[in-house]
Amino acid sequence: MSAFEKLVVADVQPLTAQACSVSFAVPDELREQFAFHPGQHLTLRTVSATGEERRTYSICSTATELTEDGRVRIGVKRIPDGSFSGWLTSRLRHGDTVEVMAPAGRFGTSTSAANARHVGCIAAGSGITPVLSIAASVLREEPDSRVTLVYGNRTSNDVMFLEELADLKNTYPARFTLLHVLSAEPQLSELLTGRIDAGKVATLRDSVCLDVDAWYLCGPFGMVSVARETLVAGGVAEADIHAELFYVSEANEEAPVDVLPLTSDQQLSQVTVTLAGRTSTVPVGYAGPSILDAVLANRPDAPYACKGGVCGTCRAKVTVGAVAMARNYALEPEEIETGLVLACQSHPVTPEVSLEFA
């Protein structure tokens, strides 16, 4: 489940001054393992004397690149003081080897040539990475479907995949609507100038996106939250809105929290986990380290990536007892109702807890 494979870097292409795409060569024997649906991500790992680091990066390519060229691509944007993103954007070279986990994530869509739908996408910054895969896949594999993409950036110099998006527009002029919204660069239309806010989303929802069948949102917490709330307020069903976050600020963003009362005065809960056919029981405090951190001390094969409640790699199903999640940006309400939780954000609230990693 959480095994890493060593993939060779086939290509590194600069996208902006702060971003690049990285292509990995996938050998024939790993093609099936690395098959993905548009919107999924890869987890990368580095191991050094100081410890292990993992980061998730969304796939920007389509399945065609994997089946025909044997490659899978990710988009990377350098973040301030980001050692991992700095390495990928500045020092990674063709021929280097990187440890990569098989594709994961539940954001995105499957495609079918029988579909005839209108897909609406709203992205900001590096949030374009999975959205590009979704848009390109729908356009190429569903000849009767349309895509409208609203993409926000500060300036035109910050637009990732600028040429690739232009190529899609030229290839599918009647089925692909592309709207660039720039917050620090005036444009001819007021609608396309400034941040993607509630007013812009409402205008787009009620005009060019009036008949959208499914929405895909990806970007920072604030934009995704505002876009979702505005769409719902205009009558869009929650089930038709799919979202993924790339980053959540600890200081500035309010996280959803499950609050459950403790059912025991014991200091430790006995947590039993089932993973890859093996069951282990570990003592976990009601406060302090998360269930995932406690489990990793005994089961280093437990799956995780961001540990921030964003990527969903560590999702598990509670079968006995109850837990409380401190943060949740990866699971939909209906998934939580079925018992799914994020192990990296979960703390026990009952004397015994059992969970199975999904």
TrEMBL record:
Name of the molecule in the record: 2Fe-2S iron-sulfur cluster-binding protein
Gene3D superfamilies: 3.10.20.30, Nucleotide-binding domain of ferredoxin-NADP reductase (FNR) module (3.40.50.80), Translation factors (2.40.30.10)
Entry cofactors: FAD
Highest taxon above the source species: Bacteria
Keyword Cytoplasm: no
Residue ranges of every copy of the 2Fe-2S ferredoxin-type domain listed in the record: 269-358
Location of the FAD-binding FR-type domain: 2-110
Keywords: 2Fe-2S, FAD, Flavoprotein, Iron, Iron-sulfur, Metal-binding, Oxidoreductase
Record organism: Jatrophihabitans lederbergiae
InterPro entries the UniProt entry points to: 2Fe-2S_ferredoxin-like_sf, 2Fe-2S_ferredoxin-type, 2Fe2S_fd_BS, Beta-grasp_dom_sf, Cbr1-like_FAD-bd_dom, FAD-bd_FR_type, Flavoprot_Pyr_Nucl_cyt_Rdtase, FNR_nucleotide-bd
